[in-house]
Amino acid sequence: MKKSLTIMKETCLLGTERRPLEIDQLPTEIKQKISDKGTEEQKLLDAITYMNFYKLHGTPLLKSKAEIKAEIITESQEALKGEGVVILKNILVQDYFLKNELLKRWLEIVDENNLLIPQNYILEVLEAGKGLRGKDKRSIINSIGNKGRHLLSIYPIKEYPSNKKTDVWEEGNADERKLYFKKLRQEKLDLSRSSFNDAWSSMNVREKRSYLALMNDTLGQDDLPMLQNIYEAEFENIAAKKVLTRECKIMICSMLCRLGHDKLLQEIKNGITPYLKAPSTNILKKLVGAGKSSLDLPKAPDDFWNGEKLNMLFGMEEKNGNIALFDYDPLYWLNVFIEYLPFNFWCQLLDQDTESTIKYFLEDKAFQTKVKSKKVSIFRQSLIQNAAYTKNKDLITILSKKLDGSDLEVLIHHMKQEDFENYIIRTKSFSKLHLYDSRFNAEEEKWSLSFSKTIISELVKMCNAGNIYPSQNFGSTISRYFHPEAISNLISGSKKIKVERTFHLWQDNVVTPIQNSLKIRNQLHQLKKDLKQKK
Amino acid sequence: MHFTPAQIETIAPNPNAFKAGNKLSAPAKWTEYGHSQRAIWGIIKGSGKKPYYTEIDLQDVAYKCSCPSRQFPCKHSVALMLLFAGLSNKEQSDEPDWVTEWIDKRRKKAEPKEEKIRTPEEEKKSAKAKEKRQENRSKLVDAGIQELNLWLSDLIRAGLLELPNKPPKYYNTIAARMVDAQASGLAGLIKSLGQINFSSTDEWLEEATSIIGKLNLLMQSWKNINNLPEDWQISVKNLIGWSQSPKDLLTDKQATAIKDHWIVLGQEKEDLFELVILRTWLWGIKSGKSALVINFSTQFAPLENTMIVGSILDAEFAFFPGNAPQRGIIRNNTKLLNSLPKNPSFHNNFVALIDELHKKELDNPWLDNEVFLVENIRLIKQGKNWFLLDADDHLIPTIDEFNDLSNMKWILKTGNKPVNISMVVKENKALPLGIFSLDNYEAL
Question: pTM higher than 0.90, yes or no?
Answer without folding.
Answer: no
